[in-house]
Fold:
Amino acid sequence: MSGPTDQGAFTKANAKVALDAVAALEERKAQDFDDSINRLPRPYQQRIAARYSGEKISSGARAAEVIGQVRSSPEALRKLVASLSVMERAALNEVARQGGFMDGWDLHVFLRLRDLRGDPRVASGPRGRVGDFSVSEFTGAAALWELLTGGLLLPEALPNVWMQSYYSQFEPLGRLPSRVLLDPRLRPLLPPEPAPPITAPPTEVPAAPGQTDLTPLRLLEVLRGVRLHPLAVTKTGTISRASLKNLARSVTAVDDLEGWVIAALNLGLMIREGDRVTVTAQAERHLTTLDPARLRAVLSGPSGHVHPEDARVSFNSVTVVRRLLGAVLRALPHATTQAEVIRLTRLVTPPELLGSRPGQSARPDALDRWAAVALRGQLSAGGLVHVSGEGPGAAVTPAHLMTPPAPSGPAWILQPNFDLLVYPANLTPQQWPLLAAAEAARFDGQTASYRLTRQSVYAALESGLSLPDLLAGLQAGSATPLAPGVQRSLEDWAARRDRLTLHRNVSLLEYPTPAERAAALKKLGGTPVGERFLLPAGTDFKLPSGTPVLLADGSPTQTFSFNPDGSFRAEGSVDLHARGLLRGRVTTRPDGRLELRPTAPGALPASFLPDLEARVKGRLPGALRLQLGVWSGQTPPPSLASVALLSHPQAAALAAHPRLKGLIGPVIGPNLFTVDAANVDAVRRALDTLGLSPTTDLTVPENRSAELTIMDDTRQKRAFLERAIEAGQRVLVQYNVEKYVGWSGQPSAGRSVLEELEPLSIERGSGNTPYLNARLVGEPGKGRGAQTSRERHIRIQYVTGMALR
Structure:
């Protein structure tokens, strides 16, 4: 074969074009850095100019001049690099190794592990303040402060973890920006140096053998579930608890489901669109291309989700402590013991973060106990670490030190009953999308169990997987031939899907009888749908005057009117979704009104109640709302047991008597105890023996607060109220009125109030404190201390009990 060949990117001309493009990109990055410095506050620019020049800068104009001269002069930049301290040079080289951009907490861990510190005098002297910003008051903050205020690194935003303003000091550290950027003009001038060794290296132990990483499979299962059940977003911007509960019904094999949902969002596999969270296009294929290091960093980093082990500790910034533990694991040069991991985590963790409040010290063993549990919690479940053994000597092997087990056979066994036994160690990334066609039943240490269902196959075909690819992929990865029955079923399911035709943005006409529809079909043409519907051929038809129009993409029409006994009638046209909602679930009474059929608890879909409520005039009767809550699994069913009641002003003394102690049941009121039906005669005889023969008169004191649910955790209170707001329910709330004392107006809990409220919204007050905005049901009380307005602004921390009404 002769003649010139197309060498594509390997020709010298193309190589020069590529180099020119890289140079242009670097120049643009440097220009962006210059623009960012120019937007910094004037005192900050003066501090940077002083670091660059070594002289005192007293004016903004002089600062801008010095910064421009140094950054435009290669010689001045080399001189700046030569003046770097050991700590500064090591830090800049580490950021350069990470691509010029990294999380400041990771850099903090890097420096602390190598005993590279900033000047300890910074915090107490004038160097610890630049304009409105000051160095953070925790151990180790001085190093990042010097790098940022010297213009060697640039912060992601102001204020941030290392440079705090007066107001940001009241924000939790985990919510402040922490990433830092290296000056692109300095990066090529840094002398290439390896990272300094850890000052006190951990003890080395044999690494665990390669472990099967189930992280991609868990993420795939979450994506499959969210494709079927998109998640709702509340008005406060959080994922609806009800939609998470609905998702959990179809994704049963994944523990800590909320944490995995947030991880998928952070990885870009899902996206928020308006008031819903949906799966992105080609998310399954995107997962196969993710860098394992980035995947580990996202799973070990902060997520806004409270892990089960984190909820049991009282650190004032547990999200930062978790981030530091993850950075320590990624920095380990070899496998080590649990005790060594805890030692290094303690070394890099500022003690100020471990108290229940800033400035308060924690128990000495609090970090040790939390880290031991955290290593075996979501970090292990996410494949970020492997812990073998118990106690301080347990071997800890981080993911980057594990050698994945070599594939040794088929990826799965597909059985004739549609069960799929998967061997994750033998899976290739190209086979992951195939598992979206099956529902996960269980994840074990070495295997995963799936099942092919019609719904899961439909969802996979809708997401872009073709039937030939599905059949070929299942056969290629299976240890056994594809059973003929399984293949026929898959082909039949796909054929049924292919027979469906989707029409977008069309009008559907409904006629009272099939005969009227047939007449309209002759006149207008089009496609008949069912017995009484017509899809017109065009849009140039005219509706008779007064014809009701229902918009499928608009708000539902309120057409149902309910009586207090739960019966209802439809006033006007009922939309198609409501008809499907009520089909087979409604009976007609002799008077023509409709009633909902009783249903087994949990048999109705979770969306039934909000979908019906959106179409109701006014409010649903309270008893019917309770019934629907039980039928849809949102509310537990009532409990009924045969018991007798023992009532007396000193009932507690009676219950403690030796003759009665084993016969008296639980207390249900201050002076009221239960007696099991089988023990009634024995209790009566015992009372007769004591000369306390009982009467049958019973007085039960009224106690509205007895139905309250008592909660101590503010997050639980907020979640309870968010669900009530979302469902439009009233709430009986017992709370302490917020009052202010002292010359500074320090808030504290005042008198206790019990009120029935209509919750409206939740907002953040000063210091990120959540408050409930609500409206009183009924008229405000009268008398001394009563609130005259119906509007309520309640600090959620001061709520002591709640009950749905």
Summary: The chain has a mean pLDDT of 80.
